[in-house]
Amino acid sequence: MLARLARWLRLCGADVVYDSKLGGAELLHAARREHRIVLTRDKRLRTAPDVFFLDSNPIREQLREVLQKFAIDPGRTALTRCSQCNSELQDVSRETVRQRLLPFVYASNDRFSVCDGCGRIYWPATHRARILRELAHIESGRPISRKATDTVC
Ligand SMILES: [Zn+2]
Q1: Which of 56, 81, 132, 153 is geometrically suited to a Cys-Cys bond with 7, CB 3.0 to 4.6 A?
Q2: How much is the pTM?
Q3: pLDDT tens digit sequence for 66-98
Q4: How many CB atoms lie within 10 A of CB 34?
Q5: Separation of 122 CA from ligand 1 center, angstroms?
Q6: Is the separation of the CB atoms in 104 and 54 below 8 Å?
Q7: How far is the CA of 83 from the centre of ligand 1 (A)?
């Protein structure tokens, strides 16, 4: 239900576990065991402790709600976690990842990060700029440009 929000929060640097297979009670138990807050749109969980119920349905409104509630600062923490698996990213040299990149990506970027968990490669210059541009639109409440819209997971 909140897969896109989970990916966006990870891109912002938040430590987010997402498992669509867990039911309500299992989800609450898992969250308590790991000292996490449950983000949900499930009205049945609304009154449970350690639950943050999202009023909004559009992804941008959800992201705005969560960033404000938990004081997440993407300007400081964006691109420190993998959007796919939540593992931390490690900076690596260009040569380390050269064989896995398209030539124009290698040629046009100086810095790269690799996910500790799944091996996905990120190039902060491009990704970070897109994320911060999208977040600036979200925070301003202005309409999203077509190009920025394309970056939403
Ligand atoms: Zn990963």
Answers
A1: 153
A2: 0.82
A3: 998 998 888 888 889 999 999 999 999 999 999
A4: 9
A5: 10
A6: no
A7: 7
The answer, yes or no, to whether residue 65 has pLDDT greater than 80, is: yes
| d(CA 139, ligand 1 centre) in Å | 27
Residue 112 β-bridge partners: 92
Q: How far is the CA of 49 from the centre of ligand 1 (A)?
A: 30
Distance 45 CA to ligand 1 centre (A): 29
Query: What's the gap in Å between 114 CA and the centre of ligand 1?
Result: 8
**Strands of 121-122's sheet in order across:** 89-92, 112-115, 121-122
Alpha helices in 1-145 (DSSP H): 3-11, 24-33, 59-69, 74-77, 94-97, 103-108, 124-140
Question: Around 144, how many Cα atoms within 13 Å sit in the side-chain half-sphere?
Answer: 20
Residue 18 C-alpha to ligand 1 middle, in angstroms?
A: 13
CA of 141 from ligand 1 middle (Å) equals 30
- Number of neighbours of residue 121 by Cβ within 10 angstroms: 15
Rounded CA-CA distance 23/1 in Å is 12
Locate the domains of the chain by residue range. Answer: 3-148
Q: Which two tokens stand for residue 137?
A: 């639109």
